[in-house]
Amino acid sequence: MNDESQRYSPTRFRVDLVDRLNYSRMASKRDVLRVDPEMDEWVQKHFPSMVIDDLDALTKKIQEALPRYYQVSVCTAESPTLRVLLDEFQSFSDKTASEMTHLGIAVRPAMGGLTQQALVVVGQRLHDFSPEALTEKKDEAFFSRCLHCKHPHIVRVSREQNSLGLECPECRRTYAVVAADSERKFRYVNEFLTGYAPPAVFAKDISRIYQLFTICSAVHGNCIYTRDPGVKKDATDAWQTSLETQRLGQGDCEDSAIYLCDWLISRGYNARVALGRYGDLGGHAWVVVKMNDVEYLLESTESAPDPRDPPLVSKVGARYVPEVLFDRFALYVRSTPGQSWRNSDGYFSGKLWTRIEPRSLNPSTEPLPVSKLTADSGKVDPSKMARTSKPSPAAAPFLELEDIPRDAAVWQMPLAVGAQTVK
């Protein structure tokens, strides 16, 4: 037996066992399992001193150390020799789920060196969440990490929704909102503000406040409110960029709000799109602007504002309840989740709103706490999963901004605002 052990090493056994597990998968046309260095290193490090008398306790220990895996299966076997030990895993190889992607293997002597024991851990390793992964992959679960409290967790998504928000299960704060465009490509919502700046020419003596209302009136006059065709009652629709909305001449509340906000930012205004609720009517999107320490609330779907009676947040904002704000570079969420909203609180307060950059949601290899697993389990504890919700009104790296899109139509519609005129 000692001679046999010297001729057939644990390293050779590991290689042969991987092949043995994959032969069965290839025969049934399933993807082969790959050795995960992180999992393999952990299993080899801890298996020599591991007590294996309760598989549920073992999987819980694996969960605590390597919980990036959505599903985990474990199998142990013991035999006088490593060659015979290979056959002990035959039935396990036939039963590994097709969703499993990676594995780790460890071997140790048992019974004072009279036998050999092996541990195989097979799991479904999750991809990191990103708009690109959501677009390209068919997965329904991803790995993510809260940008507020750094809590790692699983994100479950619904493919029926074109937009969704990610809420951390630990701190209960939203840390990302993504939406699909007309080509079904997902991006963070702030990336819909692409730097749109129509080549409008304003009179030299027009004031900033009149220019603000002129732009708002132009958006009202050139964007007919409409829901996306074919959108179900409970489904969220596709989002449009400003240039798409201008070309189509129509859009719903978030499309026209993006259209208006993008133009205002290009003209140097401190503007944000707000997603939230309007009274009892449900989800809505609007635009807020801060100028000279005064906050304005601009509706992109109703009548144009009257400069003689400007829509101040303190005056018209009582029925508007914002949940998320965004500009071109960042997302702004409530600093205290669940806090009641008063329109006097303000949309630009650093105490009330926390600024986060969704693109800082970089891939991570650190573990995340997922479900309490059994010896062969794919069930996930809801407390360890992000809450995904569709934003009420409804990629690539951050888009390179341009002052004027080459194919943007030149504004030719004369629009009078008070005594000022713009073409």
UniProtKB/TrEMBL annotation:
Compartment(s) of residence: Cytoplasm, Cytoskeleton
Pfam families, per database record: CEPT76_peptidase (PF24656)
Keywords, sorted A to Z: Cytoplasm, Cytoskeleton
Keyword Cell membrane: no
Alphabetical list of Gene3D superfamilies matching this protein: 3.10.620.30
Region (Disordered) residue spans: 363-394
GO terms for cellular component: cytoskeleton
Residues in CEP76/DRC7 peptidase-like domain copies: 237-293
Protein name, UniProt field: CEP76/DRC7 peptidase-like domain-containing protein
